[in-house]
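ok trying again, last paste got cut off:
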Amino acid sequence: MKKNQIALLAVALGFWLIAIPLTFGYKGHLVGLSDIASGFLLIIFGLFSLVPNRVWSGWALGIVGVWLQLAPLVFWAPTALMYVNDTFVGALAIVLSFLLAKKNETESLSSTPAGWSYNPSAWSHRIPTIGLATLCWFFSRYMAAYQLGYIDVIWDPFFTNGTLSVITSKISKDFPVSDAGMGAICYTLEMLLGWQGGTQRWASMPWLVITFAFLVVPVGVASVVLIILQPVVVGAWCSWCLATAASMLLMIVLTGGELAAALQCLKMANDRGESMWEVFWRGTKIPNSRLSLKPHIRAKGARAWGVSSPWNLLASFILGIWLMFSHAVLGIEDGLSTTNYILGPMIAAFSFIALSEVFRIVRFVNILFGVVLLIAPWAVFSASGIGIFNSLFIGILVILFTFRRGRISERYGKWEKFII
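nice, full thing came through this time. structure:
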């Protein structure tokens, strides 16, 4: 599709956005006023985009799209129609923005980063992360629908009223907007960013890869931490929140390789004397002579994921899960319960993230958690004998299991110096 056609679609989208509040009678509400104003902006920026090489207007469409994702949350849209219309049109505006701003990639003989044995931007590697982001989007939208008042009942398949307790807790209510709705915006952006660019985007669009990784990795870790603290802060588990946390952990593991490739690309461009700022935004070309290296270990015909599963990390993951539920299983409730509720999920999360070979170094965080487990029995009052033994035993094992790196199956060029 030509860029002029894309620009005209943005104009049509603007007229749609203006017509909906007028048609359904909510033009006097703040959401309606926002829709009408945003519609005019889409029309204006769409018309500006008809002029060749006017990149800023394409980006402006994306900014309007992001606002449309936020508007029904900021103004607490009273009907589901307002929410669905704004988020749908906003997502389309962001997609059109990418299409107007993107450059065509010239495919080289190989899309593999220098010194690597696989391409982390390949579609076979990205589609699972997009699918996981879509799952998180469904979970968040479902919870947001209750917080915004569009549904009266919310179902939790495992913890009865757990989800209800979490999304109506004081923490959730302290947010000025629906926290589940904000999560849905993040997952929308992750889905859209995951689809953008070709198999060379680690080199042609480093800004896109790093932005995508920022939404998945640090934001994802923060989300996972908040979710796993639910039994301590709220006193309940939420099935949809835990499913979201599990999906986010998988996304973090699968995203690590592409982030490392983009960062390596920027470093190599800087070594060649290129401007890192220019390469970050405009990308760089991949030499046609580059060939991928053979992996260290990979079964014949197996797909490259950049993930391996050393026994010690799997054992640490299991120990973290045990720590979460050990007091309930053992039938004790002492001063160490809260410590275990916090440290158990943290140990499990960081052990799982370390399965990504480019993130293998993060396993050393578990040493800190292990030390806390060794100190906790002497710093906490009313600790039972079995609770003390449980804490000390797991603390020692977690520390010991951390030192072994485990096998690395793929090759990562200059990034391998960070895999220790």
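cool. The chain is about 65% helix and 0% strand. The chain has a mean pLDDT of 89.
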